[in-house]
Design the sequence.
């Protein structure tokens, strides 16, 4: 894909994967990759930013005798996701208005 | 070194907390994906490439440029520090120079003193030996004095060598510390 995905959209994509259940880094990456070709190293910086902005929180759980960090959507994260979806809709409609469908 | 160890080495310069978070994340990532080191390179790139990517992201996000050699500060900051060092040099140089100069002078002075004492000791001893045959008691006195001086030398010279070594070690340690301090800026 030649188009560089804006951070706002990538962040929203990650938030969307967390909208139903808490997940850990590897699964978040794989879930997104099922649809969008992102590199494996894309997710960490996004998760970090989302956590800094308070859109996700984390908890460490023991799994198979080792720790695993799970990410959860916060109320602020949900609001942000809704916002980003609207922004994206508008953007798509505008671009489609010129480039057609 | 395995993938994570190499990554840790390549992340040098990032704040410790940040580095720990990153390493923890990728440790879990490799475990969850069941990735070997070779597969990790295929997935994430070499540890160095991944580290460069992470650092670029970290520093651009924090509104800084990516510094070379893993330093936490910008070039401008380093230049500023260098300027400060140079400006204060007229003050710091005589201070440290004075301390080292005094120490070396002290060592030098004691060495000369010891040399003279040794010479005097030997001279007394020989003089005493000769006098022994004319005036026995004064000959004995000078021989004894000479032996005391030479004995004193054997006691004091290791002390001087010890102090000299310590001073040189101190200077080396101080220089090393300063270099490390500079690298951390």
Sequence:
């Amino acid at each position: 894909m030649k188009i560089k995905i804006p951070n706002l959209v990538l962040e929203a994509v990650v938030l969307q994967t967390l909208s139903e259940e808490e997940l850990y880094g590897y699964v978040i990456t794989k879930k997104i990759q099922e649809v969008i070709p992102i590199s494996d190293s894309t997710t960490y910086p996004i998760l970090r930013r989302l956590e800094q902005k308070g859109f996700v929180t984390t908890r460490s759980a023991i799994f198979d005798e080792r720790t695993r960090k799970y990410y959860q959507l916060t109320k602020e994260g949900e609001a942000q996701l809704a916002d980003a979806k609207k922004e994206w809709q508008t953007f798509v409609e505008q671009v489609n208005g010129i480039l057609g469908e | 070194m395995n993938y994570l160890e190499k990554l840790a080495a390549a992340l040098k310069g990032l704040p410790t907390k940040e580095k720990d978070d990153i390493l923890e994340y990728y440790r879990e990532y490799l475990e969850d994906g069941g990735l070997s080191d070779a597969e990790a390179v295929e997935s994430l790139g070499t540890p160095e490439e991944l580290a460069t990517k992470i650092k670029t992201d970290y520093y651009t996000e924090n509104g800084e440029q990516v510094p070379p050699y893993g330093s936490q500060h910008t070039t401008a900051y380093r230049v500023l520090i260098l300027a400060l060092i140079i400006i204060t040099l007229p003050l710091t140089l005589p201070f440290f120079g004075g301390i080292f100069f005094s120490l070396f002078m002290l060592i030098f002075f004691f060495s000369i003193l010891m040399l003279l004492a040794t010479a005097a000791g030997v001279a007394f001893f020989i003089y005493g030996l000769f006098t022994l045959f004319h005036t026995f008691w004064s000959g004995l006195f000078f021989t004894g004095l000479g032996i005391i001086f030479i004995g004193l030398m054997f006691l004091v010279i290791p002390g001087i060598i010890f102090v000299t070594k310590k001073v040189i070690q101190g200077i080396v340690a101080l220089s090393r510390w300063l270099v490390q301090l500079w690298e951390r800026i």
In short: Chain B touches chain A through 19 residues (CB under 8 Å). The longest helix of chain B spans residues 75-131. The two ends of chain B are 27 Å apart (CA to CA).
